[in-house]
């Protein structure tokens, strides 16, 4: 039905909680390999949108397609994850007692039964992928370190690495740089720009400097407000939009 170049298609999505409309007709299209930032004040519906995409929340109406033909409204959370949608929540959740490498081995083995997965040998291809992931998420020199001893930013990278191990086509990232140092934030921006193209990224973020860095001169930024798209365009366009200014300054 849709263009081959579409990664995610959202049309007129509506969600109400006890009569309160959290999403009131939200429409959004992400291109394949796109890096899209979604911003908006508290309560705008950012989390609800991500919950709908992962199947955690069931929309009341609207269309929600992954790629050209997967109807997410008809799929379970497990089916959606298996189809290639990975989500990173704000707080890092890694196995603190295991090393960086062991955390990634578990993710590559794709087995929840921890002890069994740790005993299992990775294939040669998985070993190569492990090395690649360690470099990609800036943790090569920390491979043998216990994850609990990593900095906050490094834990976030490790969790992103664990998500990447599952080879998702679409990555949903919820405030990924909250609590990071400036240097960690800059390296995270670099990482995401590297991932775009191979993966489609939807990043919900409050840090405007970071959003500006991710979007660059041409990237699209979507502003949500009261469950709908208030504005969409390049960062400079969005920042100059009167309605956006009004919402952010609370006039
Ligand atoms: P954001 O992530 O942009 O801050 P949310 O998607 O969390 O916004 O919330 C949108 C609105 O929906 C908010 O007003 C919030 O209070 C409400 N909401 C979200 N989840 C629930 C829920 N499970 N029950 C009732 N209201 C909810």
TrEMBL record:
Keywords of this entry: ATP-binding, Nucleotide-binding, Transport
Is-annotated flag, keyword ATP-binding? yes
Q: Name one GO cellular component term.
A: plasma membrane
| Keyword Cell membrane belongs to the record | no
Q: One GO molecular-function annotation for this sequence?
A: ATP binding
Q: Which residues form the ABC transporter domain?
A: 8-251
Question: In which domain of life is the source organism classified?
Answer: Bacteria
Q: Which InterPro entries match?
A: ABC_AA/LPS_Transport, ABC_transporter-like_ATP-bd, ABC_transptr_urea_ATP-bd_UrtD, BCA_ABC_TP_C, P-loop_NTPase
What PROSITE patterns does the annotation carry? ABC_TRANSPORTER_2 (PS50893)
Q: What is this protein called?
A: Urea ABC transporter ATP-binding protein UrtD
What's the encoding gene here?
A: urtD
């Amino acid at each position: 039905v849709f263009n081959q170049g579409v990664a995610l298609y959202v049309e007129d999505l509506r969600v109400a909680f006890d009569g309160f409309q959290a999403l009131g007709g939200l429409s959004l299209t992400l291109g394949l390999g796109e890096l899209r930032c979604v911003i908006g004040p508290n309560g705008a519906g950012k989390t609800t949108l991500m919950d709908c995409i992962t199947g955690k929340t069931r929309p009341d109406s609207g269309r929600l397609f992954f790629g050209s033909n997967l109807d997410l409204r008809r799929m379970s959370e497990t089916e959606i994850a298996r189809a290639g949608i990975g989500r990173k929540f704000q707080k890092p959740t890694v196995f603190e007692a295991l090393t960086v490498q062991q955390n990634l081995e578990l993710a590559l083995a794709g087995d929840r039964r921890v002890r069994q997965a740790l005993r299992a040998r990775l294939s040669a291809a998985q070993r190569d992928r492990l090395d690649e992931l360690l470099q990609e998420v800036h943790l090569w020199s920390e491979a043998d370190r216990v994850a609990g001893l990593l900095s906050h930013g490094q834990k976030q990278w490790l969790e992103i690495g664990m998500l990447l191990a599952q080879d998702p086509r679409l990555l949903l990232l919820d405030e990924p740089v909250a609590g990071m140092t400036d240097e960690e934030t800059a390296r995270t921006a670099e990482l995401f720009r590297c991932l775009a193209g191979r993966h489609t990224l939807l990043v919900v973020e409050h840090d405007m400097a970071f959003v500006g860095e991710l979007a660059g001169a041409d990237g699209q930024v979507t502003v949500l407000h009261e469950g709908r798209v208030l504005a969409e365009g390049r960062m400079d366009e969005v920042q100059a939009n009167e309605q956006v200014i009004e919402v952010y300054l609370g006039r």
